[in-house]
Structures are given as structure tokens and as C-alpha cells.
Write the C-alpha cells for this entry.
Amino acid sequence: MLYYTNKFFKYILCNIDAIIMGIIAKGTICNVTGCQNEGVRSLTTNKLDKSDLVVISHNKHVALCKIHYKEWKKNTKKKRMLELSRYNKY
Ligand SMILES: [Zn+2]
């Protein structure tokens, strides 16, 4: 019985990490310059470096609103494709 409860708690703990990562506290404003929307996603700054979004942030994480998160996703996808085609040339 105890074995099962431990396993269950471990399972919950592992998943809580996954759930919390990328989701941010309510009321956080998007970090993109000039944007006043509520943030829905949190990214590490080095992930954001790959996109063209201009962000003001003093810590390792930045908040993005729905619109900018979409833009970031589009942006990084484009960059990845470019990188791929560059590699394929040689
Ligand atoms: Zn935004």
C-alpha cells in the first residue's frame, strides 16, 4: 500500500513540474516592449534569443502573451527552417 502511495506522489510531483513550467502567475504582463497584454507563457531568455521579439527582462524568464507566444513560435520555426536549409547546402 505504502509503495503505491509513494509512487503516486512521485508521479504527481513529476507532473507538477511539467505543468508549472511554461505557465505563469496571473496578472503578469507580457515582457515584449510596448505590449500590455496579460502573459500566458513563460520562456527562458536564451530560448527567446532565437526569435526577433524585443523583450525587457531582468531575470532568466520572460512572460509572453498569447499573441507574442504565437509570434515566437512562428519566428523560431522560421529560424529553424533557415538553419536546416543552410546545413543542407553543404
Ligand atoms: Zn505581448
Strands lie at 39-44, 61-65. Helices lie at 2-20, 45-48, 66-89. The chain has a mean pLDDT of 78.
